[in-house]
Amino acid sequence: MTRKLLNVNGSSRVVDADPATPLLWVLRDELGLTGTKYGCGVGVCGACVVQVAGEPVRSCVTPISDLGSSEVLTIEGLSPCGEHPVQRAWLAEDVAQCGYCQPAQMLCAAALLARSPRPDDEEIDEAMGDVVCRCGTYVRIRAAIHRAAKDSRR
Amino acid sequence: MSTTFDRRRFLQLTGLSGAGLLLGVTPLRASRRTLAPDAFLQIEDTGSVTIWIPRQEMGQGVRTSLAMLMCEELDASWESVRVAQASLDSRYGEQRTGGSLTIRELWEPFRTTGARARQMLIAAAASRWQVSPARLRTRESVISDPDRGRQLAYRAVVDEASRQPVPENVRLKGPREFRLIGRDIPRIDGADIVEGRAQYGIDVRRPGMLYASFERAPVIGGRVVKFDAADALRIPGVRAVIPIDGTSVSWMLQWSHGIAVVADSTWAAMRGREALRVEWDDGEHAGWSQERIVREMEELAGRAGTVTRNDTDPNQQSVASDVCVSADYVAPYLSHSPLEPMNCVVDVTEDRCEVWAPCQFPGIVRSIVARATGIDAERVQVHPTLMGGGFGRRIYADYAGEAALISKAVGRPVQLLFTRADDTRHGFYRPISHHRMEAAIDAENRVSHWHHRISGPSRDAVRGADVETPERSEVYAANQMPYAIGNVRVEFNHLYVPIPCGPWRSVAYSQTGFVIESFIDELAHAAGEDPVSFRSALLTRDTFEDRDTVVDPARMRRVLALAAKRAGWSSPIATNGKRRGRGIAVTTDHGAAVAHVAEVTVADDGAVRADRFVSVIDCGIVVHPGMVRAQVEGAIVMGLSAALGGEITIDRGRVVQSSYRDYPMLRIDEMPRVEVEIVPSVDPPGGVGEPPLPGVAPALTNAIFAATGIRVRRLPVRAEELALG
């Protein structure tokens, strides 16, 4: 067990954890940030995606020793009160069914829009293909990303 | 059966979690300040309306749609409504969620409750104003007297209303009066989800809680011979290693033998489990393999089975000149694989027990925990949580039995979490099945007989081959074959396989829908007829009922025609030099009829891409159109995932697959364009969760046939069977 300083959602957080511990479990069990979900633990389903230095990263296979001082962004930090264009678009399009994958979907979408403000369907497929939705909300995810892109341009 | 709760403790546990959702609340006794005509509704003198939801949310939208039903008749403002998840309590009924039943079961009762409360509020205002109640109107939580131009907010009369008698008979609104029902109201827990506050079973945290990971016997019925916990106990954070005795009494009461590792974090528990050394006695079932299952099913397919339907029409006898068509189909084992793996939290104390579980049947959770701990069911409280997908897997509560034993052993609340591999390998699968089909087409191009023989495992055979009516759980969809064919015989041959099976979204309709809609397509082709008009001409039977299911061929004909029209069925599909085709399927189950038209492209190497789906659903009157469309869209994804790559296989008595790597799910880049049409209707509501699923696979494979001339009779689709050259 070692003491590690993490930068999560804009705050410095101190955790006592084995450096090999995946970021997912440090977020959920040490820091109480349960918005990031466990789906498979082997880096396949994407439910655990968070942003590290603005890029989507599978937290279940990312040991905290790999983070350095990089900024970690979880769904809880995407905006103070749910007003990020992606979150607003997700509500407007009624994207979620069970909602379990949606934090990861939204963080992927936010990262995509940050680097490509007007993505076409191909870019969306490329960026969003990492996160499984078992309920099958892909049609609405696409619509919500287009909506968020449009809203952001205003 | 009643449960006694410490009211003060429950008020403490109540935390408003985000916009409009209370958790774990039991109904407060109606006091002077609240109007509560029954356990489901409470209106406070602040104007706040609380609706208890006696079903569990797994994405199908029940928290929202049920609240809409009640709020509609109550005429309360939607903004004043909050929903509370009902804990297991006899006042709410059995709270079983599944079978596409929620709206059908609660359509009238929930609206009646709302109407009753509205009437009591009106009576209170009428009494205060000294006018006849018939003169008063309600809208958006306000009672008005149009004659005198005066108004009272609901909150102003809650107290007096609570002293009114609860009216027995109330008038419910007609569809033209609806202000909420039929509209796309935003999901009531939407804000929680997008802000990451939604609490699933996996997110439950209790004071003093420990985390457990359970190393289960890899083969069904296997036992621990011996184990070495020394390395496990050395992992930092690991607190205890507990052997657990399994049981297999009935479909409801079963869990595995194994060794549980308990730790102060999820990761430590998983690492501790990896460090365990266990020697297993695999028991008697290790000899089962995929090859053996398929071989034995095929052998049985050659034998006459238990007859479950036998219509003989003397006017339609087969003659030698009839064209015989026969085909064998095989549908594989399928896993539910919801994104949130099985889990629950159990807190066993001396003589009481509390459970937080993402579960579809909380009563089963209570029974299994009572059985595991020896604690009286009356002292087991169950709090259902939001589920990250259910699909039928969370009907079972094996995880609750296991967690209860672990909590009892360590004397602390324990969260048991399945790994993805656990979830994939220790499920209750859609059973594998073999279907031998035979039919004949006479000189007038009519189908003169239809013979369907099903061979395979039965969901009812939990403990062994000795089960009285194994066919009961497997044949009803085949018995309900809706086409107007005179001579129909359905048979079942049971093959006992110890792999546990259970209902997988749409249950027997899922494999039978594929078979019937594929075979009818083969018959259309053999008759040289268009698949749409061939089916339509046979959907002429009167509506009939079988096992609480209403089969309405006229409704099926309607959705078939609408889907074909919308898809442009009569114009040839653009091929652009590729192998492209259109396929259609129409099915009915759980109270709705659905037709799908699929358009596919098959590449030279046999890879299949679904380009477009046109789907039409008739599910009676619709509460929330957006949610109906969502169920259709989701079913297309689930059906395509299964048809294009979903297969659970068995080796040495174990499930081979372990994660979404080898049991793949459709990703966004494989998603077809989808157009959904909902048939407008004022008929009583049907179900929606399951009906859109069975027709997806056959629409796809019929399209593959149209594109390539190759019939897919075994799922999942295999590219090598479709490759050119």
Descriptive tags:
heterodimer, A: 154 residues, alpha+beta, 5-stranded mixed β-sheet, 5 helices, globular, B: 725 residues, 7-stranded mixed β-sheet, 18 helices, 32 strands, 28% helix, disordered N terminus
Account of the protein in words:
The complex is a heterodimer of chains A (154) and B (725). Chain A has helices spanning 23-30, 85-92, 102-115, 121-128, 138-152, and strands spanning 2-8, 11-17, 49-52, 55-58, 71-73. With 154 residues, chain A is an alpha+beta fold. The termini of chain A are far apart. Chain B is α+β, with helices and mostly antiparallel strands and 725 residues long. Chain B starts with 6 loop residues before the first helix and ends with a helix. Mean pLDDT of chain B is 93; it is low at 1-30. At the A-B interface, helix 1, helix 2, helix 3, helix 4 and helix 5 of A face helix 5, helix 7 and helix 16 of B.
Short characterization:
With 154 residues, chain A is α+β, with helices and mostly antiparallel strands.
Look at the helices and sheets of chain A and give the structural class: alpha+beta
How many DSSP E strands of chain A?
A: 5
User: How many angstroms does the end-to-end distance of chain A come to?
Assistant: 48 Å
Number of strands of chain B: 32
Q: Which spans of chain A have pLDDT < 50 for at least 5 consecutive residues?
A: none
How are the SSEs ordered, and which strands pair?
The complex is a heterodimer of chains A (154) and B (725).
Chain A: E1 2-8, E2 11-17, H1 23-30, E3 49-52, E4 55-58, E5 71-73, H2 85-92, H3 102-115, H4 121-128, H5 138-152
Parallel strand pairs in A: 1-5
Antiparallel strand pairs in A: 1-2, 3-4, 3-5
Helix pairs in contact in A: 2-5, 3-4
Chain B: H1 7-13, E1 21-25, E2 34-35, E3 41-44, E4 49-53, H2 62-74, E5 81-86, H3 102-129, E6 137-139, E7 142-145, E8 150-153, H4 154-162, H5 190-194, E9 210-216, E10 223-228, H6 230-234, E11 238-244, E12 247-248, E13 254-255, E14 258-263, H7 266-274, E15 277-281, H8 290-301, E16 306-311, E17 323-331, E18 343-348, E19 353-357, H9 362-373, E20 380-384, H10 398-410, E21 414-417, H11 420-425, E22 433-441, E23 447-456, H12 476-479, E24 487-494, H13 508-526, H14 531-538, E25 544-546, E26 549-551, H15 553-567, E27 579-589, E28 592-602, E29 608-618, H16 625-645, E30 650-651, E31 654-655, E32 673-678, H17 696-708, H18 719-722
Helix pairs in contact in B: 2-3, 3-4, 9-10, 13-17
